[in-house]
Amino acid sequence: MSTTQHLNREADTAGPTAPASTLTGGPRAPKRRPWDEAPRWQIYVPLGLYLLFTLIPFYWMLLFAIRPAGSTSLLPWPITFEHFDKVWTERSFALFFQNSVIVGVLSMLMTTLVALAGGYALARFDFKIKRGFMLALLCSQFIPGALMLVPLFQIFANLQMINSLGSVIIAEAVFQLPLSMILISGFIKNVPYSLEEAAWVDGCGRFRAFCAVVLPLLRPGLIAVGSFAFVHSWNHFLFALMFLSNQDKQTIPVGLATLMGADSVDLGALAAGGVIAALPVVIVFAFIQKWLVTGFSAGAVKG
Amino acid sequence: MASAVAKSPPQPPPRRRTPGAPRRRTGASPRRLPYLLIAPAGLLMVGFIAYPVISVFYYSLRHYNPTKPWRNGWAGFENFVTAFTEDPQFWQTLGFSLQWVAVEVVLQLLLGLGLALIVNQTFIGRAMARALVFSPWAVSGVLTSTIWLLIFNSQTGITRYLADMGIGSYGTSWLSDTSTVFPAVVVAELWRGVPFFAILILADLQSVSKDLYEAAEVDGASRFRQFFHITLPHLKDAIILSTLLRAVWEFNNVDLLYTLTGGGPAGETTTLPLRIASIAVDSHDFGYASALTSIAFVILLFCSMVYLRLSKFGGQDK
Fold it and tell me: What is the largest CA-CA distance in chain A?
């Protein structure tokens, strides 16, 4: 039950004026406890090394994206935006960006809504095929999208959806569904059923009780699941590569792969394309970082 | 996994079904409602996951190549026989797949565990440090390839600066040399994969009861012993589950290798799924690709079951 309180507290402190939560630490949080005490160098030295490993590649990409072509300076000076101009207009990344946003947002909405309905059923009802359904969800984790390309291609061809963004949206959403549903049903289980019952007593129907009582408490979990789905389909490459052969339907990852596959790779344009691909993910990530660990600890590992 | 199924959900109080229960204005009858709620998910999964899986097994028993329709027809186990006896590339790609999965999962787990233990400590700047070290988690395979291609490229990549310092020679690319390509792609995938383990393990670390550490402290257990006797047993299920998911995921990882090396040089870095994709895309031999896919399924399923059995995952719940 401690997890439930945890969720509640998260929901309470999630407002704009909320103080830094205990989860994210922050300078004021530390209250040294005996079992936490590691010598400081044992924290900072490995952490520093790992940070270098993490950050240098990002810096490297940024460097290539904003320094003039042909420069070998390790400092990005003078700054130029010629690579961005080039990749955005000449290499039609503006269009790819738009396609990626459409695919990302629509498949995220589809995943979250369908998973919310299914997750509620799994958390709150006992029904005949429930065990079998759960098992199917878990097993589908082992079914790789990469190995499903051929039959999926045939299905979408039969549906006349090859070269339409719809095929990619559906495929991304479907492969995100099982995990999202397992996670969401875990979150719903953490909300006491008595809260819903109390709302029924007050005259709410099941749907209204759910919207008024459960949904607000699910906010951290839904944000985690939704962001996960968005980032996943924003990043995913294979379905778009296979199902969209028209140049003007392609997504950012396919655009990047095309740049990489060129005979003489234009490194500046490639780096600028990479920065464009990374930006939305960085923004989403910065936004959900606080919920990420909570979301997983509430739902994923504990089941 | 098995435990999640075995555990029955918190039961709704019987009040829900007894007559004279609190007034409910639900549209559907409570008996039909759960089925209505799972119907969209169920239909999507049947149509786009179950049906494709079945059709893969079906096509694996047929010759099916849209570009050579005169050969199409029933094949029995011919595709499988071809794979096991006549296709040396099958064994090579299978071997590389296993090597790739083993190296990646072990290294990612060890580094991720270490990283989680560090950022679970309290120290100044922890929130920032967590955000930064977790950030590659959200980066795509293609973007990872982009970044590491910029690092490994022969003209302006890292080898140039190393050569400036007198290490190595100019103009070498680690990605086109058969002796360096494996470490190079392993490092690139590690960069992206470690945060996955770090996040999951950190999430689980936060649920360790502090009382246990206090008790151990009182008993004079060293931090080292606390780790092996309290932390690690607590993390066991999370570690088993995350390594399993990751192993399956790395086995099927096509994005990074496809874009970074294209399976080369000389087929050195071709995994089984990469080979399947190239058979399907280049030679359109869907029958043979389906047979290889079926083999990959069976391998994954078998290895997962053996792993779960050996590790006694969730055993205490039985």
Answer: 72
Task: Judge: domain B89-317, CATH 1.10.3720.10.
Answer: yes
Beta carbons of A240 and A254 less than 8 angstroms apart: yes
Which of left, alpha, beta for B64 (phi over 0: left; psi -120 to 50: alpha)?
Answer: beta
Contacts with B309 (C-beta within 8 Å, 6 or more apart), sequence order: none
Does A53 map to a domain? Answer: no
What are the residue ranges spanned by the domains of chain B?
A: 89-317
Q: Do the beta carbons of residue B122 and residue A40 sit within 8 Å?
A: no
In a domain, A203, yes or no: yes
Structural domain count, chain A? 1
| Under 8 Å between Cβ of A77 and A91 | no
Query: A211-226: per-residue pLDDT in tens?
Result: 888 888 888 788 888 8
Instruction: Tell me if the pTM is above 0.90.
Output: no
**CATH code, domain with A205:** 1.10.3720.10
A284/B138 Cβ within 8 A: yes
Which residue type, as a one-letter code, is found at position A81?
Answer: F
Around Cβ A56, how many Cβ atoms within 10 Å? 15
With respect to residue A224, please indicate whether it lies within any of the assigned structural domains. Answer: yes
Mutate to test the interface with A, among B25, B35, B142, B260 (most CBs of A within 10 A): B142
A-contacting residues in B 149-168 (Cβ below 8 Å): 149-151, 153, 156, 160-161
Q: Which domain holds residue A170?
A: 98-249+280-300
For CA atoms B118, B121, B124, B125, give the dihedral sign: positive
How confident is the model over B219-270, as pLDDT tens digits? 888 888 888 888 888 888 888 888 988 898 888 888 888 888 887 787 788 8
